[in-house]
Amino acid sequence: MTTALRRYPVLIALCLAALFMVVPFLIVLINAVKSPAEYSEHGPLSLPKGLYLDGLKDFWQRVDYGQKLFNSVLISGSVAALAAALSVLNAYAIGIGRIRGRTWVLAFFVLANMLPQEALVYPIYYLSKQVGLYDTRLSVIIVFTVIQAAFGTYLLSSVLGQFPREILEAARIDGANKWQVLWRIVVPVSRPTIGVLLVFFFIWTWNEFLLPLVMLISNDNQTVSVALGVLQGQRLMDATMTNAAALLGVLPAIVFFLVFQRTLTRGIAVGAVK
């Protein structure tokens, strides 16, 4: 009975935290389908009398949202897959291979992950100009793959450093080489952690603004986050269209998170058990 009573404050705190996170999204959703006249008359907290979709349509056409959505999905998905694969390879060499200077290598990856993006803007801009990759989606994919893989390598190295040596020795006795040990033993066992990294890498890349703003100047190459910022700076929008833009900007990331929620939960639970 005492244990059950102790859980109620925690449950209430979690419900309040969830409420604080959900309410802003609901306000944006309500105002995105509200007419400008209703917004001006009753304010942002009033319920709409009907569905006013002109704001969503106007914003979609004004920024060519379909192309921006394709660019964001392509860049975020490519970065998530490539960064996860690179993290696995690096962590396998550091965590299981036990390369020389392992501590210093991990410190380098931590340092790379802590560097502010403002310090990377000019070097990346200059190098991309020199190799002819400026204003291409490939340049952003390469940059964010390296940035995200730095964190993924650090995390996976800690996980693989605790990998049971008995399993690895048994595989080597059975004749498995290093690649077979990696793809047939290490990757399947570490799949929950890799799944978590995929989800985080996708969402983190989706929300990036500064580097895509600098690297993608053509309208056909811009991402959703850049299109939102550029449009806000260039043209005056009414409140309902602003909310429509915010809704369309965050909705794909929410859908992706909900689709892979089970993968994320399973990976966190496995990590907690370990």
Quick structural gist:
This protein has 274 residues and is mainly α. It has helices at 2-32, 36-42, 54-63, 65-96, 102-114, 121-131, 137-160, 165-173, 178-189, 191-206, 210-215, 224-234, 239-259, 261-273.
Task: Describe this entry's structure for a reader.
With 274 residues, the protein is an all-alpha fold. The chain has a domain at 64-235: MetI-like fold, CATH 1.10.3720. It is 79% helix and 0% strand.
Question: What is this structure's SSE topology?
Answer:
Blueprint: H1 2-32, H2 36-42, H3 54-63, H4 65-96, H5 102-114, H6 121-131, H7 137-160, H8 165-173, H9 178-189, H10 191-206, H11 210-215, H12 224-234, H13 239-259, H14 261-273
Key features of this structure:
mainly alpha; MetI-like fold; globular; single chain; 274 residues
Described by strand count, sense and barrel closure, the largest sheet is:
none
Number of strands: 0
CATH topology of the domain at 64-235: MetI-like fold
Mean pLDDT: 85
Number of helices: 14
What's the CATH C level of the domain at 64-235?
Mainly Alpha
Superfamily at the CATH H level of the domain at 64-235?
MetI-like
| Portion in beta strands | under 5%
The shape is globular
Instruction: Write the CATH architecture name of the domain at 64-235.
Output: Orthogonal Bundle
Q: Portion of residues in helices?
A: over 70%
As a whole number of angstroms, the C-alpha radius of gyration is 23 Å
User: Could you state the order of secondary-structure elements as H and E?
Assistant: HHHHHHHHHHHHHH
